Records
---
Amino acid sequence: MGRARRQPRLPEVPGRGEAGRRSQAGRVLSDAGVQPGRTAPWAKVFGAFVLALITAIVAAYGIGAYREAERERSAFEATREDARRFADTLSRSVTGRAIDRRDAQQALNKAVAKEHGLLLSVTPTRDGTRVIVQLSRFYRRSLPLFGPADTVTRRCFAIDFDSSAQHTRITSQTTCSRATHGRQ
């Protein structure tokens, strides 16, 4: 019967104990069987993949935020165009007479879609009539993880008509609430 052959014992590196045995080629082996100071190839590939993924996410977020800001600015400026269109429509419809609430509401319905305009007040002034309207526009959010994909921008305008309703001055308002302007 054969006896089991005994493996030759590798020489120890001084001060390293069992963990510091030399391989057949004479190199020192670490505890994990990998040379110290070197990274496994799979770890390098994984690190590169994670870095590329994070870079792509950050770039997509940055581009999306820029595009969302452009859409919001465009919607905000569209409210100014709506105010101009409303003022022109109201001026054409009430030539030579005072502006009342019913005239203003009809002009608002003709000029902008019903869901985009809200007539807040029509008040006579010393020189004519002041009409306060709230105009809104929808725009699409980028990467809507939480909340709706569509959001709205609202803006109030004070439109001053002279007594003949031919000359108008459109002013954007900083506050936009019924409590501020009242309902008449």
---
Amino acid sequence: MATPLVVRSTQAVVNGLSMVVYYGCPDVVHTRRGRTLVRAAATAAAAIAVIPDLRDGAAELREASGELRQAREALRELPLPARLGLVATGAGFSALAVLGSVRFEKWAFRTGEARRLAGEPLAHTRTGLVMGALALVTSLIPPPQAGGGGGGGGGGDDDPEVPDPPPDPEELDIVIPDDARELTAVHA
């Protein structure tokens, strides 16, 4: 079995090469249909490269099904306007992401075409190399550890470098005489 570093490196190389092919194909393939087929193949290669991550993600989802049920119940308890607001916000962000992607794709193609018309050789490949390098570098970033929660802090068993904060004595139902509280306040 391959180590995580080998898998991540392979994914990074495949993603990088897929992006170079995806964005650079207009320099080699001149028909729209041909470009669509080449880009579909490049996208499929990138998708196949991340199958191990998808399997891990599916396993994590199965493990977190209880938490997902709790979240679903909490959402059902929200009033209707709040739920509609959440749906509208999600739909808005999704629409912005799609719109931004389409605009970027059109911009990248038009920029490459302008370079090609100016007589620059491999005009689209330049964009492909930049996008491929970005894909390669971002694919090398390891995913957050399962149960780590991302964003730092929290401590616990997930992050051995950050110690747990000391418990509050009042939360533990420990009776501390008033004299002891005064002593700790003086020495603190």
---
Amino acid sequence: MRSRILPVVLLGACLATLAACGDDDSPSAASSAPAAPAAAGSSTGAGSAAGAGSSAAVVAPDDKALCKTLNTAATALRNGITNAQQDGGGVRAADAKKTFIAFHTTVTEALAFAPASDVTTAAKAIADELDAAAKSADPIGSAADSDFDKLGNDLTTACKAAGVTVMF
């Protein structure tokens, strides 16, 4: 049986660097981003966020706003994994799945009306990777074994071009 501590630590490090990014006004920008309600709704339930988004006016987020939303979603992802860690450092599969699905839902909702760009391509790739990990028997191991580093670098580069510093 292989140890689960290393994958958790690696995933935590990736998520911590993503959460530490953003531009200078990240704390206040998260509340002003057009897709921020979707990010907040994912922690309380994906269904309610989807229902609320359908009745509101549709505004296509620009790449800068999308990167800020991704930063908020990544913080929620990191906090979810950190809070789910057990005494031995491992994370129960059900907790990891719940956190990964919430991230995937938030990003998918943020991308729903976003025009195609390098940011949307990179964000979708990361969300899809976490969705696939959530569907596996060992979500943390699956995420750690994935191409997460390359996808993170792609997102970092795309958001930097949009004017937002993101270190995934």
